[in-house]
Request: fold
Amino acid sequence: MIVNQNNEKVLCALIAKIINDLNILSAPPGGAELGEAVQRLGYLIQRVGGLELGLKFEWLSRGPYSRELQRYYPCVALMLANSASDYSNIEAKYRDVLNKVKDFIRRVREVFGALTLRELELVTSAIMLCLEVYPKPADPVRELAERKRIRLNEASEALRLAKSLGLGCG
Amino acid sequence: MIRPVKRVYDEVHGYIDLSEVELRVVDTPYFQRLRFIKQLAIAWYVYPGATHTRFSHSLGVMHIMGLAAQRLYDEGYIHSADDVQLLRIAALLHDIGHTPFSHAIEPHFRERLGLGHEEMSRLIICESEIKDVLGAYGYDYRTVIALLEGRHREPVYNQLLSSDMDVDRMDYLIRDALHTGVTYGTIDLQRIVTTLTIDGEGNLAVLDKGIDALENFYLARTHMYRAVYYHKTIVGYEILLRRIYEMLGGYVDDPLLIHDEREFVEAVRSGRVAFWHDDWLIGLILRAVRERVCPELRELAESFFFRQGFKVLVDRTRFEDTPLDIERDGDVEYLKQLAEKIREAVDRNSVALFIDDIKIMEEDPHLVPRVILEGRTSLPVTYAENSMIRRLPKHLHIKRLYVMSKDVHKALRVLSLGSLGH
Reply:
């Protein structure tokens, strides 16, 4: 499914809904934390949800990053701040996308015992390391562990989750 | 250090060394094409000296990348001399896919064909002898493409090529300032390069003693955006050239008038793309004029060649700290209404609106250049209390209404009637 620029409100609503439903942010949304949430969820919606948004992601020290997603920060913040935000029109049309992403995020929570932006950074980094980063690291577990300064078993779990998506991670 | 086999004298950097693989790349027709694409498209309408090319700029970016990468290698942050060469190659090829007249025509390709110069660069590298040249020297073309797309395994390499403080910007600011004569666009390149480092989290950063040079860098960019890159006359001629280009396809047949990705790939594979440059487009426009294919096209072309193009009628451009909300901005609404009013008095195609929001600096802490104040802890330079960068404007809102020269008097009459209350 392809979303064009006229459907910016759709992406804002999808991201805001996931943040709300899964209680991803620990505090009222704002600043860097909101931006980070938008980046993680934008990546998951495209990669895991299968919604082709045409977003290009770079590989930076904190994982996948899309400059185009920056313009969504204000509208997501607005939707989250408005308790009367209506998600009914996206719930039906994008149910499949929402379910895929939310199911994946729930599994992340089960595996790590927590769901914060840190866990989302780990899994999105693991997915991008698998699928898009080049040259491919000879030892992706060690690579992820060193980059994120985490234990090897945490890196291993993140990569296992990435592989479970069946997107082509080796 | 690379082993040079040739030296080229550059007006900005002095002697630029080329290694064997770099020379082989430069000698391909695909790279030679860049000699015929001006860096600043049609800025020479305002700054007659602005005739420098993508060719010299690409060499310059490679040279600066060599300086930066060598420094990081000497400091132990880059572990392989091969990576220094790889980074130089990527820098050399970063603009290989630029369209004729660079940013004047590229929006057409981006919007109508979904192809930006980054995608075209990838296609040229993949589908041409450049791939074979790289392979012959042991360089994987997919690694070069990953670098150009910001997907290389090493995040710092991606930042060197594309970030607020990347080697591309460093070269074009100095080069464009030199050729336009806009002296407040120059930067202290040596200082920036010698204070480059990596912070504790693996991000590109600048030591605190480089903060003045970084401030100067941002100030230079700010000045160049207004004085050159979005100069009112230059933008007007870019709009005109784009209109001419979009009309040409309806009246002239040429294998380099590309309509989709398939045709572009074919042009690359056949080698024809080597002729896809500024002179080709000028030749095509002249052909259309000589063959009298369409009076309207002829009129636009003559306006272009004889400097009778778009003139600014109203300019509400200003620096701001927040993004431009096009839907709610009062100036934008006023300009749209005025444009409609003027279109009642003149030919509709004589009127053009240019609305854009230029981001002067990144605000997201993930992207803002970092400065190391003590030890290895870094912070985004916009958070540094001893820096003026945090006080600089973040955005340049451009809001202009243009009218063709021949219709300026009629448009002024509409403006003087002043019925829109602004």
In short: The radius of gyration of chain A is 15 Å.
